[in-house]
Every structure is written in C-alpha cells, then in structure tokens.
C-alpha cells in the first residue's frame, strides 16, 4: 500500500515541482509521514530528494554559478548539519500533554508548523515576489540550510535569496540544484546515524520505486507544464499540505 501511495505522490509531486514552485520534498514528506515515524520519514524523503536532484544535476549542473554555489552552498551545507541535529534532538523529547489527555509530539508540532507556514506562504503574492540583496547570500544559505536539515523545506527561501544573485534562468536553476544536493548530502549523513541499515534494506524497494517515479514525473512535467495554470496548482497543493500537517500535529495520523 505504502509503495503505491508514495510512488504516486512522487510522480505527481515531481511533475508539479516544475509548474508550481513547490519542492519535491515538501509534497513527498507528508506521504512518507503517513507510513513512518517522522525522523525516518524525513530521512527517506531526503534520499529520494537527493537521487532526483542528482538526475537534475546531470542535466543542468554545468550551468551552475561557482561563486554563488560557494558562498550560499557552503553556508547551507554547514547549517544543514545543525538543522538535522536539531531534528534528531527533537525526536528524543517527550510528548507534550494538553488538557483532555491530548498528547502532542514536539517534532510533529514544529515540523508540521513549518509545513503549514510554507504552504500558506506559497499562496501569498508578496512571498512569491520576495527576494533579498546579493550581500545576504551567506545569511540566506545559513537560514535555508538549517530549515532544510530540520524539515527538508529549503527551496522557497533558497530561491528568494538567489533571485538577486544576478543569474540567468539556467544558472539560477542549476545553482539551486547543486546547493540542494549539498544540503541533502549533509543531512543524510546526520540522519544516517539514526536510521538503521535494516530500515534502509527493508525499504529499499520503496526508495527505488519512489526515485524512479520522481524522475518520471520530472520528465512528464516538463512536457505538460505549458498546459497547466500556476494559480490552481498552488491552491490545491497548499490546501493538501495544510490539511495533512494539521492532521499530523493533532495526532490523527
């Protein structure tokens, strides 16, 4: 059941990524959360995300801007270690008791809140047009890298900072892919200490299926993107993310 569901989400999400501006991880993470504990879900999502980015890196990597990758990417890579370490620490905290016997997991509360925040932000025109001056590339790398390590949500902030880096379209996309790969590698190194080899072996087929689906989704999305509208996709995907995050925080799933 989980293989079919996650593969379909990976296929759909990867295609939508080219159209809506949402990252693959933002959509795939809630699907993994339905079937796995949060720390394992984020780790598995990171692996699929990295594999998909490696495919994009093969296609576009030579267009990346070296200066931007060094300034933004190294800061993001280092901060991702801290973010991933924070996730590991949060998963070890006891649940918070609320009136009526309701138990809330700190990690679910924080990561779920981030999912809602980024989903809502995607609906705001001001956020879609947000950008920062080039001098703030290092600060942007630290912030987006930390959030990438904590929850996998790095794409929106990374794009906001890179918009003012003076890059053409290909360099902008390629630089983002290279930086995303750097963050994925660093957080996987941290997650890997807390995900057993048995877990990876047990879910190897699922990871392969999800990765193949994500690559296929990117290929399909590239062909049909001209026929899709941005507004409708943003509203549908954002609504789904918010509903799933609320259900996750409340303990329903």
Structural class: mainly alpha
Shape by Cα distribution: globular
**What's the overall average pLDDT, rounded?**
77
Rounded radius of gyration (Å): 17 Å
Neighbour order of strands in the largest sheet: 1-2
In whole angstroms, the N-to-C terminal distance is: 16 Å
The biggest beta sheet reads: 2 strands, antiparallel
What's the number of helices?
12
Portion in beta strands = under 5%
Roughly what percent helix?
over 70%
User: How many strand segments?
Assistant: 2
Structure explained in plain terms:
The chain has 12 helices and 2 strands, in the order ααααββαααααααα. The model has no long low-confidence stretch (mean pLDDT 77). It is mainly α and 253 residues long. The chain has one domain. It is globular. Strand 1 and strand 2 form a beta hairpin. Helix 1 (2-20) runs parallel beside helix 11, helix 2 packs antiparallel against helix 3 and helix 7 (137-151) crosses helix 9 (169-191).
